[in-house]
Specification:
Shape: globular
Strand content: 15-25%
Structural class: alpha/beta
Order of helices and strands: HEEEHEHEHHHEHHHHEHEEEH
CATH topology of one domain: Rossmann fold
């Protein structure tokens, strides 16, 4: 029986996939030092369709008209989560807005219900302390709860509906062992319509390249196809979860990593075309790269693959994020 701790060999691999593409688990995560001197691009918001800078208020106005919003992040960047919380604060109060979390398994939805029972029905929770225990946060390889707590707290204060979007860790383990055959019949049937929306060959090849780079080009070649397929399944599962959480949710917001928030090969590709979707990525700036187009090559595109990109100051890391992978492979 698999332990839910990342201490096991199998689950260490799983956690690397779940927080892949440069976003490391708590065990491997480098400590972030203070931001370095901010280049001119830091904290600016780039609207990709118009190729122009916009204000925070202008971005929120566009988001308020969307059915689905994908708020990307680098998992271990505290500023990215504070920004996500700031965006949630701009929306109206009420359960008709659903917030889904990549970091929470879909089989933990009841944890949110149990947590809310601790507070009077007329008064939404004004904090999120203790919620991490119900979610078994520290057992699943994500960065420290303190980074994500502001996002959960803001969603609770707004009395929004909260849902897990991630696949259970046991399912991810089965996918590593058996590929798609590891999906249960029920989950396979639920995801089939989404998985039929396959990526074009060029984008599929790009996804494999990105996964390899996200693992410091240390991932054994034999594992790359399986890792790539798991990324596809997770994107399809996020899309399926977003579209099936219930008819009362008029607006759905996914808190997720940048790679899943991409419009080209992320969750957007697997969503139905009838809904208006807005995606936001958050990219740390690099000294000497002061134009948004300086960051397109990393994605293999002429334009950044988001609707909005909120640039953030660079962070110094006090250790090599690839060190853990070198030890493993």
């Amino acid at each position: 029986m698999l332990s839910l701790s990342c201490a096991s060999v199998v689950l260490r691999v799983i956690c690397l996939v779940i927080v892949s593409l440069g976003l490391w688990s708590t065990k491997q995560i480098p400590v972030l030092a203070a931001p370095i001197a901010s280049p001119p691009l830091a904290d600016k918001i780039w609207h990709v369709p118009s190729q122009s800078f916009v204000t925070f208020s202008q971005m929120v106005q566009v988001m308020q008209k969307a059915d689905i919003i994908l708020l990307g992040e680098i998992h271990d960047n505290p500023q990215h989560h504070l920004r996500q919380a700031r965006i949630l604060k701009q929306f109206s109060r009420g359960r008709e807005i659903a917030v889904l979390f990549e970091m929470v398994s879909r089989d933990y939805d009841n944890a949110f219900h149990i947590y809310r029972q601790r507070f009077p029905t007329s008064q939404p929770p004004d904090r999120a302390d203790g919620l991490d225990m119900l979610l078994k946060w520290n057992e699943n390889g994500w960065p420290d709860w303190s980074l994500y707590e502001p996002v959960f707290r803001q969603a609770l204060q707004k009395d929004m509906s909260l849902f897990g979007a991630g696949l259970p860790v046991g399912v991810i383990a089965s996918l590593h062992k058996e590929g798609r055959a590891g999906l249960s019949p029920a989950l396979h049937n639920a995801l089939t319509p989404y998985l039929q929306r396959t990526l074009p060959p060029a984008l599929s090849a790009r996804q494999r390249q990105d996964i390899a780079r996200g693992h410091c080009d240390l991932l054994p070649a034999a594992l790359l196809p399986r890792f790539s397929d798991i990324q596809t399944i997770r994107n399809a599962a996020f899309a399926q979860r977003i579209e099936t959480i219930g008819p009362d949710s008029k607006k759905r917001i996914l808190i997720t990593g940048n790679e899943h928030a991409r419009r080209d090969l992320g969750v957007v590709h697997y969503l139905s075309s009838q809904q208006k979707v807005i995606s936001m990525g958050q990219i740390p700036v690099q000294l000497g790269h002061d134009n948004p187009t300086d960051y397109t090559a990393r994605y293999g595109r002429q334009r950044l693959p988001f609707d909005f990109v909120w640039f953030s100051p660079s962070q110094n890391r006090t250790m090599d994020p690839c060190a853990g992978l070198r030890d493993k492979w």
